[in-house]
Every structure is written in C-alpha cells, then in structure tokens.
C-alpha cells in the first residue's frame, strides 16, 4: 500500500464520514442510487431526497414497477432530472436482463443509463468489493492539487493523467474504504474554497501546498458567455384553486416533468387561450409578472409568467391535468415539476399573503 493511500485511510478511520444513509446496510442498489444522486449535488442536499426515495422505492423491483411520474415526483427539486429518468430505465433493464439482481460485472454496470466510469467504479468498489479507481469532482480536485496539474482537468491529456494516477494510488486492499475516504477528503478538507490544508493527511507530498499555490488548482474550465433564452409560462388557475399543467416531452429540458404551458411569445399565450375557448372576461384578468431567470449549465432562461385566474376548468381542450397547488409541494409532490414551477407556486402563495 502506498504512503498516499495509507495516510488517507488512517485519516478516514478517525475523521471520515461513517454515518451517511447509504453507508448503512450497504447493497449495490443503495450505493447505486446514492452515487447517481451525488452526481453534481452535495451530500447535505442529497440526504433527505435519498431517504424519501429509498422509503418509496426500497428495491430495484419497486423502482422498476413504479411509473416514471412517481420517480420524478420524488426527484422534484433535486435537479438534473435525466438522472431520475435514467435510474428508472436502468431498474427496468436490471429486472429484464438480470432478474432484479444488480449486475456485478464492470461492462454491465457501465452499460446502465447514466453510469460513467467513475460511478461504476464507486459502486463496484464500495458495494461489491472490487478494485476500481474513481475520478469524481472531489477526487479530481485532490489529485490536481497533489500533482500541481497545470491546465483544465477536462482536457484529454490531463484527464488521462488523472485516471492513471487514480488507478496507481488505489490500494490492493480496503479499496471500498479508500474510495469513500478520498471522496470525503475532497468534500470536507480539500474543498474548492478555503481548504483545510492544516488537517490534510497528505499535505507533505502535495505539490500545490509546497508551492503555496493551493488556490490555483484545479484550473477552471475556460469560460464562455452563456446565451440567454426567453420563455413565457402560461399560468392558468381555475375557480377551485387548481393549476393547469402539461407533461413535457421525454427529450429536452425537464423531460417527463409537468410544467405550465410554455410559449415563445405573449401572442402565443393569447392564441393558446383562444384555442381553448377561455372566456373573454377571464382573459382580461391576464397579468404579466416580472421576469425571473433560471440558469442551466449551458444557458440562462428568462421566464415571463403570464397568470390567468378564474378559468372554467371544463374549457381547456388541450392535453394536461388540473393539479391542486398543495400537491406541488416538494415534500408531498405527486408529480415531478421543475424548480421554476415550484418557485412560481411559492410566489403565488406569497402574493396572497400580502
């Protein structure tokens, strides 16, 4: 065992996290769900979602038997909704091809939708005691500082170098603990800002620390100006206080989630109202709310809510459902909705309380 991995394991035994929900009663299924949820999401955010998700879908079979809408409802607010759709697809695949038993072979795990090399390695090492390296964001940060890696970690040559080092430093025993240990080190000590170098077990060998350049690593991805797009959300509320939602296409942003009818222009909103023969008196109550911005990884979306209240629920001819506002609360959601929908519902509540 290298000095690097030995020191990290010794640190983990004393200071690592050992009480996370997915570290209890470890199974491949539980670890898989946690690793998917933890992609681009912090532990403290994931924990309540994970606990609710596992209570609703305790097994692969339970997840596979659920409707996608049920799965996305439990994902509502967590973001990156393709992860939830991929979990559901994978569960169906596991039932069909592996009889409900989570696959134990590298190629089979890697073939699951939404599972990449690092996620597959984490599942196999933590849950199935197989030696595979990982290279998630936390590990990239630790290694890029340790080796003072110049350049963005996403560059092909740099990523190859990091994978080589990740593999070389993974010990031949206790690799499940080591996988959790090096992720913990990045998450709690070698943090993005204000790292606690004084508490780091490998600082003596860390080139960034020796050079007093810890803040320089890892290098940021070259920035590009994000484009700004615009969308009108038509918020229809009937006389019973229900909101009109439509399910979005499976492909594209918020795939499979339920949202307000989205249009490119204000006139398109009026056309939708006309097509559904909503009464003229009701249309006169249309109010354009202030624009608010929702940011994706590649662009900003400026959303303009067009709110119409007092709609006769029997007038709407388009595909969709009337949904009670209360049922859109994240902790009791019956349908998966994107964050902007939750935000608009909250704004509606606040406006009534004024």
A few lines on this structure:
The chain is an alpha+beta fold. It is built from 15 helices and 8 strands. It folds into 2 domains: 3-216, Endonuclease III, domain 1 (Orthogonal Bundle); 228-353, Nucleoside Triphosphate Pyrophosphohydrolase (Alpha-Beta Complex).
What descriptors fit this protein?
354 residues, alpha+beta, Endonuclease III, domain 1, Nucleoside Triphosphate Pyrophosphohydrolase, 2 domains, 3-stranded antiparallel sheet, 15 helices, 12% strand
Question: How would you sum up this structure, described in words?
Answer:
This protein is an alpha+beta fold and 354 residues long. The chain folds into two domains: 3-216, Endonuclease III, domain 1, CATH 1.10.340; 228-353, Nucleoside Triphosphate Pyrophosphohydrolase (Alpha-Beta Complex). It has 15 helices and eight strands. The strands form two sheets. Strands 1, 4, 5, 6 and 7 form a five-stranded mixed sheet that branches. Strands 3-2-8 form a three-stranded antiparallel sheet, with no helix packed on it.
């Amino acid at each position: 065992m290298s000095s690097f991995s030995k020191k990290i394991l010794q640190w983990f035994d004393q200071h690592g996290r050992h009480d996370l929900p997915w570290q209890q009663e470890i199974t491949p299924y539980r670890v898989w769900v946690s690793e998917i949820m933890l992609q681009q999401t912090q532990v403290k955010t994931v924990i309540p979602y994970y606990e609710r998700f596992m209570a609703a879908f305790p097994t692969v079979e339970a997840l596979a038997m659920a409707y996608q809408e049920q799965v996305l409802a439990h994902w509502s607010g967590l973001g990156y909704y393709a992860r939830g759709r991929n979990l559901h697809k994978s569960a169906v695949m596991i039932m069909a091809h592996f009889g409900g038993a989570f696959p134990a072979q590298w190629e089979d795990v890697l073939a699951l939708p939404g599972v990449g090399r690092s996620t597959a390695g984490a599942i196999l090492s933590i849950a199935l005691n197989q030696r595979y390296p990982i290279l998630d964001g936390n590990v990239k940060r630790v290694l890029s500082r340790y080796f003072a890696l110049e350049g963005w970690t996403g560059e092909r040559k740099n990523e190859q170098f990091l994978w080589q080092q990740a593999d070389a430093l993974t010990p031949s025993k206790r690799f499940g603990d080591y996988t959790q240990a090096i992720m913990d080190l990045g998450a709690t000590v070698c943090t993005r800002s204000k790292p606690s170098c004084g508490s780091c077990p490998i600082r003596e060998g860390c080139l960034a620390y020796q050079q007093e350049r810890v803040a320089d690593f890892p290098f940021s991805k070259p920035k590009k100006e994000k484009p700004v797009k615009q969308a009108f959300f038509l918020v229809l509320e009937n006389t019973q206080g229900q909101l009109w939602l439509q399910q979005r296409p499976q492909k594209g942003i918020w795939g499979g989630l339920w949202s307000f009818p989205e249009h490119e222009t204000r006139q398109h909103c009026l056309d939708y109202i006309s097509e559904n023969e909503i009464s003229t008196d009701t249309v006169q109550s249309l109010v354009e709310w202030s624009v608010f911005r929702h940011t994706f990884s590649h662009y900003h979306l400026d959303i303009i809510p067009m709110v119409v209240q007092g709609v006769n629920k029997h007038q709407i001819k388009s595909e969709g459902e009337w949904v009670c506002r209360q049922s859109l609360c994240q902790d009791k959601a019956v349908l998966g909705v994107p964050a902007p929908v939750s935000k608009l519902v909250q704004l509606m509540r606040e406006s009534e309380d004024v």
